[in-house]
Task: structure prediction
Amino acid sequence: MTFIMILYYVMTAYVVGMLIWNFIKTKDIKSEILYALALLPLILRLLRMK
Amino acid sequence: MMRKWIILAVLLLVVLAGGIPLYIHRNFKEEVVAGEGVTGFFKLSKYFSGIEGTIADTDVFELKGSEEGGKMLIIAGTHESEPSAALAAFYLIENLKVDRGTVYIIPHFNRSGSLGTQPGGGFPLYFSMETPWGEKTFRMGDRGFQALDQWPDPDVYIHYPEGQAMSYIDARNTNRAWPGRPDGLYAEQVTYAAMEMIKKEKIDIVIDLHEAEAMYPVTNCIVVPEKSMSYATGASFYVKGREKFENHVERSPTAFRGLSHREIGDWSDAYPFLLESPGVHLDQITAAKTPELIMDGIDPFVLKAAEKGLLFVPYDENGFSMDRRVGQHSSVIQEIVVQWSKKNPERGLTISAPRYKEIVDNGLGYFFKDPSKADKSDVYLQ
Amino acid sequence: MSADAIYMQTIIAGIVMVGAYVVGKLFKFSTEMCMFLAVVGGGIAGGAGFDLFRHLAEGSVTYLDIGLIFVFATIFMNIIKESGGTNYIVRKIVGAFYNKKILMLILLMCVILVPGALTGAGSISVLVVGGTVAAALGAMGLSKVTISAIIFIVAGLSAAAPPINIWAMMTCANTAIPYVGFTMPLLIPIIILGLFTVLFLGRKAKVIDREKALKDIPEPKGLSGWSVGIPFLVLIFLLAAPRIWPFGFPVLGLPLAFAICALVAWAMNYKRVNILKVSKDTVSQLTPLLATTAVVGMLVQIMSFNGVKGLISMWIVTAPLIVVWIILPFIIPISEGLLTYGGAMVIGIPLIWMLNSNGINPVIVLAGLSLLWPLGDGLPPTALIGRLTVSTVGYKGSYGSFLKECIVPWIAITVVGMIMVIFANNLSFLMMVG
Result:
């Protein structure tokens, strides 16, 4: 894996962290669902599934 | 709080239930049984150590005849969403006899592409065919390198060495990366390794196997640069006259860079030929993308387009089956070799394998050997 | 399966998808959620079974990189805003050109164009510079409805402006057409239409009240031109370098390029900007867009899987061209209003495919269509950017009156877009310039 590719995984993890933080803080169910939808592709990439 | 846990649980379910099949597909191995023609097996990194141990490295089968002669390289899986190419390669590895000269076959040139399907493409992960000994299953692949292996894309891909700007998506496309460079992206490194092989082995003929949409003008054809033109024309005439199928010749454009049929000819002494068979599953206008569509090529929407005169291939309710597509590849390859050998007797090759009609009559599955009954040393996992 | 049965199955899958979407709307779900319901319905109706999960997973990553571009480009722009950079730029414009009405309007138009052009999202233009520009326009005596219309239309144009045009990038990725040669075919009409919009809607503007305007736009403390300019210079360098040294400069990709610029912007303003807070707020701000990119990917995946995309494509490619020309000005914005980027996938891809097969220049067509898609962001049910603009500007009138104010530039954009689509080959010379 190249250094730049590693940076992309770090960037993805950063966005995942921010999304989870916001997910925990929000009280609105619609927002919670949106956070979950936004998290899906990022988690799949972090786990190197797709 | 309970609600959050439920949403997270659903997310986890989709990640696992959706992701695990993708992971399994990425690690699924196809079995190919080396036929009597196979005399050697090695990695492409033999010619460029820079790809050794990486996803860009790939397998090369060698089929050497008893008599010295010319050399041919058959590349399949440049675009792994065009499965008749890899199947034709497997078929030749199991069935091709080489009496004179040497044939090299790479079944998954873009190995990364063979390990995942196109996001958004809606394709099945696998497709199967009937054989006399049971069902044989293959992976469906993607056109380019997987993002898991080559990430990120540039905002614009610039072809080496011509400097032509192309779509960022083509940075993953091994048929925009010829002649390649050793310190480039993986797609450029694998083509560089192949160019090294072509030069060091003094390959005479390079065949690059593909499929194209029925609605795309460059389909069901042989694409060649000027220097390969007479051989392609001869092969095209022969298969039309004797084997009764259409396979016209298209001229390789000089202004469109990075393609095998352009760069291999320009950067080496080899004669490139890019073979396109009609893969209807690739068309935008198909009904459901099913394994059957990949195998049979039968689609009512494409038929409707054919009735409106929108296709560039003859198409009817019988579709364009895998048997026909692989059969075409087999016949055209053999006929190119015949044409070449006639004009270059000192570098000629003598090869044979069942051709179009035999494959269509018996079905492609008939020609695949049962891995469970074969000598283990002859079974290669791809 | 017989041809009739395949037709029937595909049509049923399509009806189920529409039905699921409508049910979602009846329950007042968000558009992303409605599209997700349509995806699930389409998968089940298409017979995906357990493989539905795989399709959801695979489809969701289709536009992952575009999502990352959104995030890091917006973090960059938000750091500039938080540091006071946006106010700094607008104050400089007001201070220097307050007595030149037309020049003021044009410069403010440019200010709105930049964030959207760099990020590909008109909403970013509204969020980052909308408030500041609205203050400046207000000082020129324009009504809030007019200001809303100007910001909405120009922000829409900014989303289509180069270098990042998401509609074109998504369509290119799915049609094997290079995302190359779009710069001038997009930039020229966008500049012309932007000028027309600000000059037409701003025709009643007065010479600005300099003191009032400067009072309304807070003055950033201790901010120098360098700390605003250097991050943009870095961005220009990172965008230009791969073109200047294509084989010597590492492939950074746009998300990393913007991330680097964000870090530079933060380094120059670290006392003023809490980067963690900006990141958190940015991600929160962008979540609907990120969810949209994930769901649109799923939508394309499922519609390919069950054949609905093929069916729609077939209708389009077999329809007489004249019918296509007539319905496009309506169907393009409406599809955007219904499906956001999904509209480009469902209609844009087959259309481009068909026109490309017919020898019509796909780059010019796509550039023309790109002008029409952002208009849909003002249309219900989503009206994503329309609503955002109205609330940012603080316009309290009816949404209909806001749309009415947009009508003239809307028609102008439609006319220019359709001219580009219909006469694409005659306009191919635009590509030569860029």
Observations:
- The domain at 31-381 of chain B is CATH 3.40.630.10 (Aminopeptidase).
